[in-house]
Amino acid sequence: MDTPLLDAVRSISVRDWLALGQVLLRITLIVVAAWAVSRVGNRMFRMILARLLRAASEDRVDRLETLGRVFGNGLSVVISLVVGMLMLDVLGISVAPILATAGVVGIAVGFGAQSLIKDYFNGFFLLVDDQLRQGDIVQIAGIDGGVEKVTLRYVRLRDYEGNVHFVPAGQIGIVTNRSRDFAFAVIDIGIAYRESVEAAIEVMRAVGREMRADEAFGPSILEDLEIAGVNEWAGSAIVIRCRFKVKAMQQWGVRRGFLQRLKAAFDAHGIEIPYPHLTVYAGEPKQGTAPAFNVRGLPGTAVNELPHR
Questions:
Q1: pLDDT digit string (tens) for 113-129?
Q2: Cα 2 versus chain centre, distance
Q3: How many other CB atoms sit within 10 Å of the CB of residue 261?
């Protein structure tokens, strides 16, 4: 029994079948050629990247890997767009009107997607200027964390608590990178007012020398402990500031290790680490004519009225 579908098939001439076969063949050739170009291009790109990585210094490896990942994705997008336009041309669909329409639509969309465009531009310059790389410890947009992924559109951070933050590249104005070349472990040490500053500094230097000689901390410390001196007269302590020059991203571990060892050293030398306390002073004029400062004890105690000093 004849059906409309069979009638339609019989109505197609041999020439139409040949034309359809040519179209399918050309589309197949385009897809195969695109696949081959993509494979060859990615392989060449990986070979070039591997050669650069072998010759690169340690601080350039992360940058090259980040750039390689971004530009590899960009190559795939370009090939896909070219294949799409060639396939439309094979099907007899003019690409020029589509491009013209896309241009008009793109302008209209551009006004509504300025933040997205800004993200891509900022992301591009973040990579070109080498402001951050995967694995760096940074502060961006008020967030501290380790860089897990960098794209043209966003940066993915993971903070100390394990929270993941996706920061749009357009919101990144200032990048504070704590992972480049070297860092300083800045430490403020408080001692009681009655303690000798010189004695405390000598103990700090001795602990610093022990840290440099230690197998665990020594390789991370680049220079001897630097003592800046008395930095502040705080409410209950004299604050002495010091710092270690260390390898990048080692400042936190060195700081914790120094504080732990210094606590034991201060205890051994009898140097008081003060705790917050309050001194009540009645005050008196220069003539010394202020009234006595009365102190009253709790019931059952014998506390005499004491003059102020």
A1: 567 777 777 887 887 77
A2: 70
A3: 17
